[in-house]
Design a protein that fits this description.
With 123 residues, the chain is an alpha+beta fold. It is built from 3 helices and 7 strands. The strands form 2 sheets. The protein has a 4-stranded mixed sheet with strand order 3-2-1-7, covered by helices on one side. A 3-stranded antiparallel sheet has the order 4-5-6, covered by helices on one side.
């Protein structure tokens, strides 16, 4: 099953990745300052993934990639680079197929952080 994974950087900023059922990262977000902004970004990806024209197909230095854009043209997520045009199209199809129903996994929950702090203090 596909999953949106919410993570935190060392600078206490947030981002998400969309991971396919085959455990491959198929879309990565920009960095957000607030966790609620990440959730809003995920919601926008779910909606935008339904529209093929929101996928901006790009190529650079012999590699192919795509950018998923919102209705107002803002970049929501970026693919990995692909060596073949067909692979990029398969990546787009995977996002279209999985994003609308992907589970959301929060790896930076405040509860988890609290447990880690308590364990650190006990050592």
């Amino acid at each position: 099953m596909a999953e949106f994974i919410i993570s935190k950087t060392r600078e206490a900023e947030y981002f998400f990745c969309l991971r396919s059922g085959r455990n491959e990262i198929i879309l990565s977000s920009e960095i957000y300052r607030l966790k609620q902004a990440v959730r809003n970004g995920i919601h926008a990806v779910r909606l935008s993934a339904l529209n093929d024209h929101r996928f901006e197909r790009k190529n650079a230095q012999g590699c192919y990639y795509f950018v998923l854009r919102s209705a107002n043209g803002e970049a929501l997520g970026f693919s990995t680079t692909y060596h073949a045009l067909r692979s990029r199209e398969e990546g787009i199809e995977a996002v279209k197929r999985t994003a609308p129903t992907a589970e959301e996994i929060d790896l930076c929950s405040d509860d988890i952080l609290q447990v880690e702090k308590i364990q650190f203090v006990n050592y």
